[in-house]
Write a structure and sequence with these properties.
Blueprint (H helix, E strand, L loop, with lengths): L6 H18 L2 H11 L4 H28 L2 H21 L3 H30 L4 H32 L4 H5 L10 H20 L16 H7 L3 H32 L3 H26 L5 H21 L2 H15 L2 H10 L6 H10 L3 H16 L1 H5 L2 H14 L9 H8 L1
Helix pairs in contact: 1-5, 1-6, 1-8, 2-3, 2-10, 2-11, 3-5, 3-15, 3-16, 4-5, 4-8, 6-11, 10-11, 10-13, 10-14, 10-15, 10-16, 10-18, 11-13, 12-13, 12-14, 12-18
């Protein structure tokens, strides 16, 4: 018997996806402000996303175990308390050390939410609707990534012009010359609002399927002994490292090499990177019904590498657009790699998924290496590291051997015959 969907909880989860993306993907547009106001080297600037994404490596697997002991509501409430504390810390006392701690705390909160909301979405929306609701969630996630840099530009410009509205309320709280701090006051309010909403909401009981449950540490250790698990962990590490490598550094690159204003042109470029990724994701859904996911991965990765090259070595206008268009071609990589990974093992999918999510630490490690290289050979040279991570993802299209391939419309026609 099918359970009736809980539309209120579905909307709440979709709102949570929006908030996670809004808080996460504004870090890139802010990088030039961090560098300028805190007087950072590229290495120290790379430590900021490191602090955020390392939290995923620390929190993902423990949270997947804790959620089986405590309910989803408690974990989500705790996550927004942690995010609130992190946001308030940087808003109230803006300096480099508080920025590091703030981003780590916000990252912990976002990691906790990511672990909880996917199984909750399956239960609240109904297992039979999960494919649709999960795609809808990813589109909303992409939409928030598009919106957040534009909100950043809006708030900075209106604070500088001393316009009315919300910016007039924030004006006394924001240090002179650091209008971007207004975003962290906004994050503080958003986290507090989500805390209250979730606290007042009634959640359904989530019954995880046997292969969705996170096993004990021994299960994770045993999985890590399998070459295929290590290979896909590296793949997710490379994907998130590349995604953040482009989105975090592009605004600073455009400012440093082509003198584009990071608060307007730079922020817009990052917004369009995420917006085009959302558009590419819609096209990718259609193409997955027409061709093998491994071929699609190859088909999209090669143009992504070409766009990266145009961004790094093209003229000012070419670079401005090429970095954003890279997002379009990166759109299919995460879902294809994740699905190929889960389709390549026959059991312990819950534990394997926890390991894969831990691969998000690639967003931490790759940025700090780019920053280190940037200090030695220049930011352009540092960002060339992304050819390595792109190359690894390209290789997956050739060596992946899933136990179950994605079904296309041609497979259905052959089966009918």
């Amino acid at each position: 018997m099918k359970s009736k969907p809980n539309y209120y909880i579905v909307v709440l989860i979709l709102l949570t996806f929006f908030v996670i993306s809004f808080l996460t993907n504004v870090i890139g547009p802010l990088s030039p402000a961090f560098i300028k106001d805190f007087k950072l080297s590229d290495f120290l600037a790379g430590a900021l996303p490191f602090a955020f994404f390392i939290a995923y490596g620390i929190m993902s697997i423990p949270t997947s175990m804790l959620v089986q002991k405590y309910n989803e509501k408690r974990i989500m409430v705790a996550a927004f308390v942690v995010a609130f504390a992190g946001s308030l810390l940087l808003a109230a006392e803006p300096n480099y050390l508080t920025a590091i701690l703030s981003l780590f705390l916000i990252g912990c909160g976002m990691a906790m939410l990511q672990v909880v909301i996917n199984p909750l979405l399956r239960v609240a929306g109904g297992a039979e609707n999960y494919a649709f609701t999960s795609v809808l969630a990813q589109l909303i996630f992409g939409g928030a990534s598009f919106v957040s840099p534009l909100v950043y530009s809006y708030m900075v410009l209106h604070l500088q012009q001393k316009s009315g509205g919300i910016t007039s309320i924030l004006q006394p709280l924001v240090p002179a010359g650091m209008p971007w701090i207004s975003l962290y006051w906004l994050f503080t309010v958003i986290s507090l609002a989500m805390f209250v909403i979730i606290l007042l909401s009634k959640f359904p009981k989530v019954e995880l399927q046997s292969d969705e449950k996170a096993g004990p540490w021994k299960t994770h250790v045993d999985l890590f002994k399998k070459p295929v698990v290590i290979a896909y962990f590296i793949a997710l590490f490379c994907y998130v490292g590349t995604e953040q490598g482009v989105s975090y550094w592009m605004s600073e690159f455009l400012h440093r090499y082509h003198q584009f204003d990071p608060q307007t042109k730079g922020a817009d470029a990052v917004a369009y990177f995420w917006g085009l990724m959302m558009v590419g994701g819609i096209l990718g859904l259609l193409l997955l019904k027409l061709m093998d996911s491994r071929k699609l991965l190859i088909l999209f990765t090669i143009p992504a590498m070409i766009c990266l090259s145009l961004g790094l070595f093209g003229s000012a206008q070419v670079s401005l657009y090429a970095f954003s268009i890279t997002g379009f071609f990166m759109s299919v990589m995460y879902p294809i790699i994740f699905s190929l990974a889960l389709s390549s093992v026959s059991e312990d999918h819950g534990s394997f998924a926890g390991i894969l999510v831990t691969g998000i630490i690639g967003g931490a490690v790759v940025q700090i290496i780019i920053g280190l290289l940037g200090d030695v050979i220049g930011l352009r040279g540092g960002m060339m590291l992304l050819y390595v991570t792109f190359g690894y993802m390209l290789s997956i299209g050739f060596w992946a051997k899933p136990l179950i391939k994605n079904q296309t419309i041609f497979d259905k026609k052959e089966a009918a015959v």
